[in-house]
Amino acid sequence: xxxxxxxxxxxxxxxxxxxxxxxxxxxxxxxxxxxxxxxxxxxxxxxxxxxxxxxxxxxxxxxxxxxxxxxxxxxxxxxxxxxxxxxxxxxxxxxxxxxxxxxxxxxxxxxxxxxxxxxxxxxxxxxxxxxxxxxxxxxxxxxxxxxxxxxxxxxxxxxxxxxxxxxxxxxxxxxxxxxxxxxxxxxxxxxxxxxxxxx
Amino acid sequence: xxxxxxxxxxxxxxxxxxxxxxxxxxxxxxxxxxxxxxxxxxxxxxxxxxxxxxxxxxxxxxxxxxxxxxxxxxxxxxxxxxxxxxxxxxxxxxxxxxxxxxxxxxxxxxxxxxxxxxxxxxxxxxxxxxxxxxxxxxxxxxxxxxxxxxxxxxxxxxxxxxxxxxxxxxxxxxxxxxxxxxxxxxxxxxxxxxxxxxx
Lengths: 199, 199
Prior knowledge:
Two copies of one chain form a homodimer.
Chain A: H1 6-15, H2 23-36, H3 38-54, E1 56-57, E2 64-65, H4 75-79, E3 82-86, H5 89-98, E4 104-107, H6 125-133, E5 139-142, H7 148-163, E6 167-170, H8 186-194
Parallel strand pairs in A: 3-4, 3-5, 5-6
Antiparallel strand pairs in A: 1-2
């Protein structure tokens, strides 16, 4: 027998669908909302509804956007002639928040992984190829993650761009800023050494 | 400038009102719901709405309950003649889930703390006194937390019960099961030693 009433049980179950939330945290969140922040619960319910009804995938960048306010397709961004390819929306947000880059983006929504059935179509690479072919892109910046699949995806996309005479660059990988050589893993250090640059 | 569109920004802000959720987790949750679990987002919005409209505080136990389904006020629970006082709804749920106790409860919703302006009225102690006076309670079990304020609250409630000739008990405090004496704090160990029982 559980001590939860039906609606409380359902609220806890619903909160558990959030990533990183287990049964204890979900119970704590539900009781907190009911006990101390009913207004917050209303706000959250409303924000979820608004997000579901108003946020779509942009057909061009494949980022989440609101039709009336897509900040990533603007003419000023297109003018730069640069297109940055990332795996996920969170990667786009990280780049936008930490770098001065203000060109266009393309969100793959994953990486090539034939074993999981994720091929070029699932990542919208036909759409990317079209954009590379229309002559507006001078530089394609590949910012996929430096994992095995991310590297394979980067290689595949680089071939797409070269076939259309677009310059391709890849963000640098090496020792992270503030890191200490002693504690950096061997693969990263070897990569950083091989990729040394003239000062 | 932030990379969030207005609705995405509001969803992240709303998720941050959940306890233990910072800006990074809130962003992760929002993107997860939009990207991989729109159904879960709908379910959560619905569950929040249902909880807000259907969950009330029981006027008798002060626990969250649904008028059509209050599991804590039933006649069978009243028959036991026992009333357990806890600080918070989460404490009630913990007792209900881990112990065979199936008597009645009273949820204070806090503890006496004059400095924060929390007096007997805020904890509903007048309501508790009424229930103690109506002759249905043979034993009052005090399960407030063993903190300074929790102990003070327990003391105050014990006086209330004694004045109405109701037997008062307090849940045992001592070395936790599976704990090792070596690592238990001094206060707990001293309490456990003083409270030794005949085998």
